[in-house]
Specification:
Blueprint lengths: L3 H13 L38 H4 L11 E17 L22 E12 L4 E16 L12 E16 L4 E20 L8 E20 L4 E8 L2 E11 L3 E11 L2 E9 L4 E10 L6 E7 L4 E7 L5 E11 L4 E10 L16 E12 L4 E13 L1 E7 L5 E20 L1
Antiparallel strand pairs: 1-2, 1-19, 2-3, 3-4, 4-5, 5-6, 6-7, 6-8, 7-10, 8-9, 9-12, 10-11, 11-14, 12-13, 14-15, 15-16, 16-17, 17-19, 18-19
């Protein structure tokens, strides 16, 4: 016989906690910082910049303008520091006094990395390969906080494996195509089963594969100015796995969610032999992420529900500068802005997100025998992350703001040309 009370409690908790990887920030819930030197300019104008193996991911059409084999390996990390400061609402019914904490600093350190490769085949055709993680999230709230029946701990990683090809249609124009194979992996998702002290955990472990594509173009308008565009299709993840509830019960878990399509237009202009200006605008269809379907089953009976997140599409704008200091050293800096996909009336602890401002600095140092060492740092500031009287399980009220809410990205890239 299906354990109705356990399954219903688990389903309601998971429905409340449906946005399992929506806190990363950039471009809605994805992250830009995927291990290329463009990170030092907040990825401003990246689809119009051709200079290293990261082109295979940022704009595969640009591979046609690389004359020799390129390889890049990046290691790095990002730190998301989120301090919750809120006032309890008037309807915190059933929430014990020892379960009304503010969650403390929910931030974590998340490792990252990327591998990029480009090989020209002849004067017209080039191929490339990418492995990176454009989706990642990590949160860990203190025990006894008011939202512990919604979320205590979360780790999600979305890995992208992308072969690509480019064709140079003329001396000035090329097109590119990439196939995106995405693996969504959720090894950690924990919440408490009840609001009372010594309550046991509900845990989820799930994963799935899906694929999409990238279309890209690059046009050299003049010797000094070029334009680029990229379109990335949406990804549909059907996360399957296990949901462990108290008393040792293991149920089958399924969540259907969408990662959105997006498009970006960029320009690069050389003011002089040393100075280059870059800029871009972009759009992401994050309203597609607003709906999730969740199912929990014991193999015979399935209970399901649907959640609407009330998210909206996002816009991005960025600007950056690249300065060739001398034959060995290149310096970079850039700014970018992403609009807010969320509404404060629906802001929840698994998705502390708002509009995001980025400021970045970076350098590249030419070493001997074709090696290039690059370092980058990005500070991302979340503007005014608030929750307005949002109801959580067991009558808890989530009301207040995250202050400060920021992320720090560090990256080191080694290129071989």
């Amino acid at each position: 016989m299906f354990e109705k009370n356990i399954a219903t409690t688990a389903l309601l908790s998971v429905i409340y906690s449906s946005a399992i990887f929506a806190n990363a920030g950039g471009g809605g819930a994805s992250i830009y910082e995927v291990g290329t030197p463009d990170m030092g300019m907040s990825y401003a104008g990246a689809p119009a910049r051709v200079g290293d193996a990261g082109t295979a991911y940022l704009n595969p059409a640009g591979m046609s303008f690389l004359e020799v084999d390129q390889f890049a390996l990046m290691v790095g990390a990002f730190v998301n520091y989120i301090n919750l400061d809120f006032q309890l609402g008037n309807s915190a019914v059933g929430v014990p006094a020892n379960a009304r904490g503010d969650g403390g600093s929910a931030g974590s350190i998340v490792p990252g990395g990327g591998l990029y490769f480009v090989k020209p085949l002849n004067n017209c055709w080039s191929v490339g390969f990418t492995v990176n993680a454009p989706y990642a999230a990590a949160l860990k709230y203190d025990e006894g906080w008011i939202g512990r029946n919604y979320l205590e701990e979360l780790f999600f990683l979305g890995i992208n494996i992308e072969p690509s090809i480019a064709f140079k249609a003329s001396e000035d124009f090329s097109i590119g195509l990439g196939l995106n194979f995405t693996y969504g992996y959720l090894p950690t998702f924990k919440m408490k089963a009840t609001p009372f002290q010594n309550s046991q955990d509900i845990e989820i472990d799930a994963s799935d594969w899906d694929w999409g594509f990238t279309l890209a173009g690059l046009y050299k308008y003049t010797q000094y100015t070029q334009f680029g565009f990229t379109y990335k299709s949406g990804i549909k993840l059907n996360l399957d796995g296990e949901l462990k509830v108290p008393r040792g019960t293991v149920l089958q878990f399924n969540q259907k969610t969408k990662l959105p399509q997006g498009i970006s237009f960029a320009v690069s202009h050389e003011l002089s032999e040393q100075l280059k200006l870059l800029g871009d605008i972009g759009w992401s269809d994050w309203s597609e992420y607003a709906f999730q379907n969740i199912g929990i089953s014991n193999g015979n009976v399935t209970r399901s529900g649907e959640v609407e997140r009330h998210w909206k599409d996002t816009w991005r704008i960025g600007g950056g500068v690249e300065y060739q200091w001398d034959s060995c050293l290149t310096l970079r800096t850039g700014l970018s802005y992403d609009s807010n996909p969320a509404n404060k009336s629906f802001t929840l602890p698994d998705a502390p997100i708002s509009s995001v401002y980025r400021l970045s600095f970076g350098f590249s140092l030419n070493l001997e025998q074709g090696y290039v060492l690059s370092g980058s740092y990005t500070y991302a500031h979340f503007n005014d992350v608030k929750a307005s009287n949002v109801m959580l399980p067991y009558g808890a009220v989530f009301d207040g703001k995250y202050d400060p809410a920021s992320m720090h990205f560090f990256g080191v890239t080694l290129e071989v040309k």
